[in-house]
Amino acid sequence: MTANKKVLICFHDKCFDGAASAAFFTRLYRAKFDAAAEITYRGLVHRAGQLFDENMFVGDENVIVDFKYSSSDRLTWWFDHHQSAFLSEADAQHFRQDTSGRKFYNPEFRSCTKLIAHVAETRFGFHPPDLDELVYWANLIDGAQYPDAQTAVEMKDPATQITLVIEGTRDPDFVPCLVPDLASKPLQEIASLPPLRQEFERLYSQHMKWMNVIQQRGKLKNGVLFFDVADLNMEGFNKFIPYYLFPGAIYTVSISRSPERIKIAVGSSPWNPAPNPANLATICERFGGGGHAKVAAISLPPGDLETARRAASEIVQELCSTFSS
Ligand SMILES: [Mn+2]
Questions:
Q1: What residues contact residue 283 under an 8 Å CB cut-off, 6+ apart?
Q2: Alpha-carbon span 319 to 315, nearest angstrom
Q3: Distance 133 CA to ligand 1 centre (A)
Q4: Is the model's pLDDT at 292 over the cut of 90?
Q5: Which of 92, 116, 321, 106 is nearest to 221 (CA)?
């Protein structure tokens, strides 16, 4: 008897879409390529400098989903939908010259899971109806398409509960171990599994604490909500909380601090868009930050609190003035 084929699936870690992409690919691979393959999972995170180590690709097949391209010869499958999918022009060129028919890029997709589902159906004639809900939620969560702030903040749906755990867990093995469940069980059942439940309860009570803090400290003026939580270790709060607590808020400016950095986060409400929205990336770029038009940020060294407060107050003024003219 020969050994089973080894497949390594690398996915965007701490991200519902990343884990869901790994799950969907698993089903595609087992159904259409090798039902007996021995599949392992590895989460990837963005960091400065070298993203991939050539020695990382130890499988007979090496797969990347929802993460940047690698020009390694050992990479056999790749799916991504991020605007910035290529680390260099050389990588982009390498991808364009690929003739394997197993590397797929389309930034028009809101989620990588949906891209994989689309390729699975159109190229390989594979559509597992039991994964429709996984694809639906990956698209909604990754594309920030929540119907309202309640759905995003109250987390009553199993998918939003699973997302809180995927994004917030400190156990590096948690998400890789969750992928086989995502590939085979309904979300309701996964959300009820005791290890997930336990992590959810812990993270949800932290979420409620942060909601209280934002409620107490938030100051809303001319559609702009400002709060300063630099004295608390509160990085990573749910970015929809401000619009849930202050339905009149169109923009949010906040200052938070972790041991590594001070962060000024500047965001806008997906549910209450201003008629002539400001480009938040452009504003943040002036202070050395950046991001997207609708959500952007500035990072400063942890000691630069006075600079951060001055910058934040200038940004608040500027955003307020967009409503008074
Ligand atoms: Mn994604």
A1: 266, 296, 315, 318, 319
A2: 6
A3: 16
A4: no
A5: 321
Kindly report, residue by residue over 69-125, the tens digit of the pLDDT: 999 999 999 999 987 788 889 999 999 999 999 999 999 999 999 999 999 999 999
Report how far ligand 1's centroid is from the alpha carbon of 307 (Å): 34
> Rounded to the nearest whole angstrom, what is the distance from the C-alpha of residue 107 to the centroid of ligand 1?
10
Segment 182-240, tens digit of pLDDT: 999 999 999 999 999 999 999 999 999 999 999 999 999 999 999 999 999 887 789 99
Mean pLDDT over 135-161 rounds to 94
- Sketch out the chain's domains with CATH numbers: 6-141 (3.40.50), 218-324 (3.10.310.30)
Q: What is the mean pLDDT of the chain?
A: 93
In the block, which residue shows the tokens 């589902």? 117
Q: Which residues in 149-158 are b (16+ Cβ under 10 Å) and which e?
A: bebbbebebb
Residue 197 Cα to ligand 1 middle (Å):
24
Going from the Cα of 114 to the center of ligand 1, the distance in angstroms, rounded, reads: 9
Give 159 Cα–ligand 1 centroid separation in angstroms: 15
